[in-house]
Amino acid sequence: MTDLLNRRHALAMLGGLGACVIAPGHAFAKTGDRVHLAAAWEHQGSFHIGVLSTQDGAGQALQVHTALEVPTRAHGLCVLPDGSVLGTARRPGDWLVRWRPGAGSEPRWLWQDGERSFNGHVLASADGRQLYTTETDAETGASLIVVRDARTLAKTAEWPTHGVDAHELVWDTRGGQIQGAAPTLIVANGGVPTVPETGRVKRDLDTMDSSLVRLDARTGRLLGQWRLQDPRLSLRHLAWSPDGTTLGIALQAEHDDAAVKDTAPVLALFDGTALRVVAAPEHIAQGIHGYGGSMAATPAGWAVSCPRAHGIATFSLQGEWQGLVPLSEVCPLAVHGDALWAGGLAASLQDAQAAASVMHPHGQTLQGARLDNHWVAA
Question: Over the stretch 356-369, which tens digit does the pLDDT of each residue have?
Answer without folding.
Answer: 899 999 999 999 99
